[in-house]
Amino acid sequence: MTKWRVMTVDDSAAILTIIAAYLEDSEFDVVAAERDGRSAVERFAEMRPDIVLLDLIMPGQSGVETLSRLLAIDPDAFVVIVSSLGTEEAVHECLTTGAKSFLQKPFTKDDFIVFMRDLTQVA
Amino acid sequence: MGATFFGQYLLSKGVINREALIDAINTQRNQNLNLTALAVRQGYLDKQQEEAILLRYRTSDAKLEDLCLESGLIDKVQLDELVRLQLSDWMRIGAALVAGGHLSCEEVEKHLDVFQEAQRRAEEQIETDFSACREPETVKTVVSLAVIHLGRISDQPMKLQTLSDHACDLAAGRRRYVQRLVGDRELHVVLDLPVEMESVLAEGLVGIPCESGTEVAIDAVCEVVNIIGGNACTQLEACGFKLRPDPPYSTEGNGPINGKGDCVRAEVLVGDAEMDVQVLL
């Protein structure tokens, strides 16, 4: 079975570890884990993952700015925002910028896996 | 679940797609007017007077209705008419999704029941009366989320012991975690916890053993604070605040607490460990 290649982007190493653990032994393969937007853009250009899980609140280049840069490289990039901030304003800004979906932290492993599998129906 | 926008909940559950949510939010934004915007439409206020009232609203915990009356520009009869107009016209996200043909009324009601039940269960964990605090709604939101998330992540019983108006300096053997929330006002969420609790929270969050004081443990606790602060911004949006969190950080000094701002301090017991949640207003 071909696995979905996932890149995770979050300034928190804890979140990167959690997501990697949740996706272990699943149909998803975490091929890159980046801790800032700038390096995420570089890695995306090299690796072209199927799905990008992108944090919103990061030092330096913000999640929305990173999202725009990823979409400039590939307008069809499948980017999903994963953030503790889930205001209507933030959700609307991310979706209209081009994010495909939005997941608010915290989340359980079960909810996360269901969310990821739902994504593959439209990715 | 701590604080979630219903539209985001439906999106993350795969009930609606992004196009449906964008459409519904746009419909809401075109339809819904706050009281001062309605007052401008009705000719009771001009734009400058509206902005002055909104500025006060964003920097206080007072209700918009009260500020309208206090301004002396709107009387009680006019206010009652505005409230009636607002209630009759206000479109919620579920109604906007139905209006756009994205969901049926029955589907909205079914998902809303599940969503509200989860929100209610979270709120039931806090029985403390916050009414004597400065800015009770804001403080209750932050402290409640802190108690809910710290209890869930540490898997230990949580108890909110006391609330006071006195900020505290960082005590020996503790580390301070800070997140600034910025937007149309500014506040800080400050968590002081015994260093030995870092390993408990880090292991609870990440699922692997982490030693207190290590970069991994400190990073994990920063993420706990980020969840509290980000969720607080989400919940406070319903009170009219537009806030975003800055990245959180840890410090061995006092950070933003310098005796200049108003501060509410909540002493919290997590298992046997005492910690402080402070909200710098």
Structural commentary:
The complex is a heterodimer of chains A (123) and B (281). Chain A has 123 residues and is an alpha/beta fold. Chain A has one domain (4-122): Response regulator (Rossmann fold), CATH 3.40.50.2300. Chain A contains five helices and five strands. In chain A, strands 2-1-3-4-5 form a five-stranded parallel sheet, sandwiched between helices. The longest helix of chain A has 14 residues, at 109-122. In chain A, 50% of the residues are buried. Chain B folds into two domains: 6-121, no CATH class; 128-280, 3-Layer(aba) Sandwich (Chemotaxis protein chec), CATH 3.40.1550.10. The mean pLDDT of chain B is 90. Chain B is an alpha+beta fold and 281 residues long. Chain B is built from eleven helices and seven strands. Chain A binds chain B through residues 11-15, 17-18, 21, 57-59, 83-92, 95-96, 99-106, 111, 114-115, 118, 121-122, and chain B through 2-5, 7-8, 11-14, 17-18, 21-22, 25, 93, 149, 152, 202, 205-208, 215-216, 219-220, 222-223, 226-231, 233-234, 237, 242-247.
Q: Globular, elongated, flat, extended or rod-shaped: what is the shape of chain B?
A: globular
| Poorly predicted tracts of residues of chain B | none
Q: Given the C-alpha coordinates, what overall shape of chain A results?
A: globular
What is the CATH C-level name of the largest domain in chain B?
Alpha Beta
Strand content of chain B: 15-25%
Question: Could you give me the name of the CATH homologous superfamily of the largest domain in chain B?
Answer: CheC-like
Count of separate DSSP helical elements of chain B: 11
Tell me about the largest β-sheet of chain A. 5 strands, parallel
Strand order of the largest sheet of chain A: 2-1-3-4-5
Task: Please give the domain count of chain B.
Answer: 2
What's the helix count of chain A? 5
Distance from first to last alpha carbon of chain B: 25 Å
